[in-house]
Design brief:
The protein is 30% helix and 19% strand. The protein is globular and about 45 Å long. By secondary structure, it is an alpha/beta fold. Strands 4-3-2-1-5-6-7 form a 7-stranded mixed sheet, with helices on one face. It has helices at 15-18, 29-33, 44-47, 68-75, 88-97, 141-148, 152-161, and strands at residues 2-8, 53-56, 80-83, 101-103, 115-119, 124-127, 132-135.
Length: 162
Amino acid sequence: MLRGRAWKFGDNVDTDIIIPARYLTSTDPAELGAYCMTPADPEFPHRVRKGDFVVAGQNFGCGSSREHAPLALRGAGVAAVIAVSFARIFFRNAINIGLPIMECPQADAIRTGDELEVDPAAGLIRNLTRGEEYRATPLPPFLREIIEAGGLVPYVRREVRR
């Protein structure tokens, strides 16, 4: 179970909003996290706390196919991204680097500052501030295993050792 505050963004948040191209000289999550979401909220990297959630509308992560976007979110301390829908390449990149993501049709009801309790495996999101509960589409077990391992590379390393 994860618990943290929500940071709300809108529809069609592209990878240049998540991490502007001028910062792509690094693949270090902490370094990327220092600039995460700054085009939309310049104070985000300074105000977000480890364990918080990014919440968005439709098509989150559209744009380029760079892995830097989910790395930046993870580096900023984001525990998971909850959105109405994800761009397919962001969806896969998030799984590959071990960032939990949840597709939730009711994500629009969540507001910045809402305190959330999230169970990614069950697809359950509790909005403790509003006293509401939302259902997300749970990821299949094999994708949850990749995320729980910390991403695709750690997952493959673990499987090869078995």
